[in-house]
Amino acid sequence: MRTIDLSPLYRSFIGSDHLASMIDAASRQEKQQTYPPYNIELLDEDKYRITMAVAGFAKEDVVIEVQENTLKVLGTKESGSDTKNQKSKNESERKFLHKGISERNFERKFQLGDNVKVLTADLQNGLLHIDLERVVPEAQKAKRIEIGSKLYENE
């Protein structure tokens, strides 16, 4: 992926520095984050699904938070400690010939559009599914105006 120079946006568009900052942050973040892999699906006109491959993580290991327009998914695996049960102790002592399933901690952020709400989250077969929906308020929906009709009663 090429690096995009956004300095002309900062110089040319007064008041758009927030937009340029978001684009700049997104391009930097995308380069760094490759784990865990994810898909974003369009299920319906206003319904979406994010599917993340989180093999090795249980429901208790994953935290999903929404703050303002940011969806944050955190995955935390505890490393072996003395306070864990015997099964966890044995798992930390395993010797791998090849370890292709990465069970490292992660934090993945998604910028949500205006009026996008998280509906549900489910973890099945190593895949985390997060369903989203864009709910457009009635005041922002398009309205058809019939020709010859009065918009206001006072007219």
From TrEMBL:
Pfam families xrefs? HSP20
Keywords, comma-separated and alphabetical: Stress response
Looking up InterPro entries in the UniProt record yields:
A-crystallin/Hsp20_dom, ACD_IbpA/B, HSP20-like_chaperone
Q: Which residues form the SHSP domain?
A: 29-150
Q: Which SUPFAM superfamilies match?
A: HSP20-like chaperones
Tell me which family the UniProt entry assigns to this protein.
Answer: Belongs to the small heat shock protein (HSP20) family.
Q: What is the protein's name according to its record?
A: Hsp20 family protein
Provide the species name: Glaciecola petra
Q: What is the lineage of its organism?
A: Bacteria, Pseudomonadati, Pseudomonadota, Gammaproteobacteria, Alteromonadales
